[in-house]
């Protein structure tokens, strides 16, 4: 009979001490999730992030979200006073589908905690909150133009030209990709010109303190988003894994830039889906020549400096849409497919939550071959789950640790649980 997994109980934030010890001196901690709509993934990531910030001095959280929206949150949590009303009001900035990913009460609770923590820190030491994603082409262009016009500098001309080039497609960047697919004219030169202009200015004017440097950094980052978003939408039209690679390479480039901004001793927490943070080389993604943030981070920063934590569950509920752009729904997640990773954990733990460390489980015989590992996106149809929601994975190599939550609840989106009704009971297990 195969040896059992070596697991540890997972009941409260105190039980995270084992993984905190395993993280050691890693510079980057990648925190995954098996869906974008499960309460427990957000709750446990928040609990671990708080401990990393308080006990190990981590400087920022970077999430699978758009740069402009996340930077608005970043600016708010670094203020001395609360000037944004409430965290729930602040998160209304996430108004593009899927709004529930960051417009939820779980994130609101984290935003409140971050602001409270930052009030006791000097401006240079305040913890940041940033977006790693590449989707916000139009919003980022608007932000660059606003920045250039405010400063009245040499980037205005380039920013205005790029703005005019994309303006006919502002409602839908995918329409831009379709429009330029069969012609030689596109907006690639225009967005690259903006980025070059901002980088020239950054080289000429380098503010002494981090809060001032951050504003110039944000403008340059928005220009970088526009450059890579233009590439992303054109690659998406061609199909295959090219657009995925553009997106995750952008995430890694952004993470490196943020680490450089905060200095050589800075440490980062990343929140993203398991498919981004679990090393792609140990999944069937590799057969499609797809890379991801987890792989790139290990390759570029060194495996010992990156600690990746996967999440998963056996069954429960999730917030998702039945198709792209569809209204959000609370959807029942069925019991995991037989002999999948989640099914085996459910059987081994007798339906209790558990923490696994890969270093303790690499020699377990049943983990010597790839296992199906559930992945739920913002679009979810449980009736088809067995055909498309499992990623073959070498679990102990893909992650450094794994948090298993047997039964899960759906996330608490602000649109479903409005502020007028008050925040729901988020943490019955205690923080």
Show the helix and strand layout:
Layout: E1 8-9, H1 17-23, E2 28-31, H2 39-56, E3 60-63, H3 67-77, H4 87-90, H5 105-119, E4 128-131, H6 137-151, H7 156-166, H8 173-180, H9 188-204, H10 210-238, H11 242-262, E5 268-271, H12 274-277, H13 293-301, E6 306-320, E7 329-333, H14 341-349, E8 354-357, H15 358-361, E9 371-374, H16 385-388, E10 390-393, H17 395-398, E11 401-407
List its traits.
single chain; 431 residues; alpha/beta; EreA/ChaN-like  fold; nine-stranded mixed β-sheet; two-stranded antiparallel sheet; 17 helices; 11 strands; 13% strand; globular; Hydrolase/PRTase-associated; UCP036794_erythomycin; Erythromycin esterase family protein; Emycin_Estase
């Amino acid at each position: 009979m195969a040896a059992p997994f070596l697991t540890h109980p997972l009941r409260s934030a105190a039980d995270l001490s084992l993984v905190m010890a395993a993280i050691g001196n890693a510079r980057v901690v990648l925190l995954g999730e098996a869906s974008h709509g499960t309460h427990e993934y957000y709750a446990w990531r928040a609990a671990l992030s708080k401990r990393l910030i308080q006990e190990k001095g981590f400087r920022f959280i970077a999430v699978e979200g758009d740069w402009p929206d996340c930077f608005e949150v970043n600016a708010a949590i670094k203020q001395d006073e609360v000037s944004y009303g409430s965290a729930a009001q602040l998160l209304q900035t996430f108004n593009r589908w899927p709004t529930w990913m960051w417009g939820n009460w779980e994130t609101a609770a984290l935003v409140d905690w971050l602001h409270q923590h930052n009030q006791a820190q000097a401006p240079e030491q305040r913890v940041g909150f940033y977006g790693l994603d590449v989707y916000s082409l139009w919003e980022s262009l608007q932000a660059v133009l606003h920045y250039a016009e405010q400063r009245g500098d040499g980037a205005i001309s380039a920013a205005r030209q790029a703005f005019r080039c994309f303006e006919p497609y502002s409602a839908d960047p995918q329409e831009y990709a379709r429009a330029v697919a069969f012609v030689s004219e596109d907006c690639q030169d225009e967005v690259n010109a903006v980025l070059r202009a901002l980088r020239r200015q950054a080289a000429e004017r380098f503010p002494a303190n981090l809060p001032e440097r951050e504003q110039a950094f944000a403008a340059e980052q928005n220009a970088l988003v526009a450059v890579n978003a233009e590439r992303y939408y054109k690659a998406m039209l061609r199909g295959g894994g090219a657009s995925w690679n553009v997106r995750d390479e952008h995430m890694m480039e952004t993470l490196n830039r943020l680490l450089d901004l905060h200095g050589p001793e800075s440490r980062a927490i990343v929140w993203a889906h398991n498919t981004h943070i679990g090393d792609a080389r140990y999944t069937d993604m590799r057969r499609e020549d797809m890379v991801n943030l987890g792989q790139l981070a290990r390759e570029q920063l060194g495996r010992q400096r990156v600690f990746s934590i996967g999440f998963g569950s056996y069954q429960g509920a999730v917030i998702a849409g039945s198709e792209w752009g569809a209204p959000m729904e609370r959807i029942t997640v069925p019991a995991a497919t037989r002999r999948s990773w989640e099914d085996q954990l459910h059987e081994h733990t007798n339906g209790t939550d558990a923490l696994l460390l890969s270093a303790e489980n690499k020699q377990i015989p049943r983990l010597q071959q790839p296992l199906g590992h559930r992945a739920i996106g913002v679009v979810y149809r449980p009736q088809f789950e067995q055909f498309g929601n499992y990623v073959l994975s070498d679990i102990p190599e893909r992650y450094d640790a794994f948090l298993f939550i047997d039964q899960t609840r759906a996330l608490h989106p602000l649109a479903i649980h409005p502020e007028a009704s008050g925040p729901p009971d988020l943490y019955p297990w205690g923080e």
